[in-house]
Amino acid sequence: MACEGMLTQVLGAVPEARAHEVAGFKAMFAHGGRMAALEAQEGASVSGLLADLDDEQFTRLRFFAEGAGAEFKEAPLPTFAAAQGEGIAFDEGGWRAKWAELMAGAARSFMPLYGRAAHHPLPLVFGQCLARAQAQINAREPLPTTLRRAGRPDDVEVIELATPYRGFFGVEELTFRQRRFDGGQSPVLNRAAFISGDAATVLPYDPRRDRVLLVEQYRFGPLMRGDPNPWQLEAIAGRIDGGESAETCALREAVEEAGIKIDRMIRLPGGYPSPAAKTEFLHNFIGIADIPDDAAGSGGLETEDEDIRSHILSFDALMALLDSGELAVAPLALSALHLYRMRDGLRSAANG
């Protein structure tokens, strides 16, 4: 069903197709495993479905493939992605389990851009659509409802959904009705939301030395708010890519931003930093690590134009910054308070 959903989004409808076998090729994983590529191999063959696409469907497919990072090449028979594979044979069952729903979700966000002027490189936009699809899957993980109302599928009636902007982030505008606490329906409402994927944060802590590592960087949000000093102290953080877990993201970002290896991850409660208008959900961790005196330095990916420096602070210095208000990034403040609660136990376990 997820594959049919993706075809419907990409082509506009599921085309008629017939079984076919392509001789002289093998199917390989490509683009991080989310797509398949055909590679020439004597004696091999690939079984699949062969469809005749009209010009509009072919143009739509080409648009989607460009965003997903694939390219078309002339071949005796129509092939989807002819990019070079990654040395791992394609496993349809494994792909369906990990990628089918994600790619269908990305197509739902990406294909409405077809025929519209592109303000950003299509692969960049597609990557964000994939992260958005991952966030929607993550959102199904239930959170406790011991006090708050437990939602039901019919609580919201969607009347119209519009996407006035889609780039590195997105803006979606929803016209809807919602169920009220008294059981009735609200009047027709119109709200806009800032769309992004989920993110992961990790605060590295060395319990033997009783110190943490923070990163500092120039932040666009404070700049656009009018803050004269946009440099912010933060926990290590990053956007969760499509097909990536929150923990894997946090471990990856620790290396990219600070060059530090986390030995053990402690998951903290996650949450929405601003639920009135933002879809972002933060997955927070304390990362147990060795933080020697020379651990501080500079980091960040040149490909993302990141300019990051790291700081080593004693736990007491961290608390002093929290009290003074200099820690103005809420996820770091929240993680610092969780560390305050856990600190004695972590130090006792580390010092035996």
TrEMBL record:
Pfam families assigned to the protein according to its UniProt record, in alphabetical order: NUDIX (PF00293)
Record-linked PANTHER family: ADP-RIBOSE PYROPHOSPHATASE (PTHR11839:SF5), UDP/ADP-SUGAR PYROPHOSPHATASE (PTHR11839)
Biological role stated in the UniProt entry: Acts on ADP-mannose and ADP-glucose as well as ADP-ribose. Prevents glycogen biosynthesis. The reaction catalyzed by this enzyme is a limiting step of the gluconeogenic process.
Keywords from the named record: Hydrolase, Magnesium, Metal-binding
GO molecular function, one term: metal ion binding
GO CC, any one term: cytosol
Record: residues binding Mg(2+): A237, E253, E257, E306
EC number(s) per entry: 3.6.1.13
Nudix hydrolase domain boundaries: 195-335
Motif (Nudix box): 238-260
Cofactor dependency: Mg(2+)
Source taxon at top rank: Bacteria
Full protein name: ADP-ribose pyrophosphatase
Catalytic activity, reaction form: ADP-D-ribose + H2O = D-ribose 5-phosphate + AMP + 2 H(+)
A GO biological process held by the record: ribose phosphate metabolic process
Family the UniProt entry places it in: Belongs to the Nudix hydrolase family. NudF subfamily.
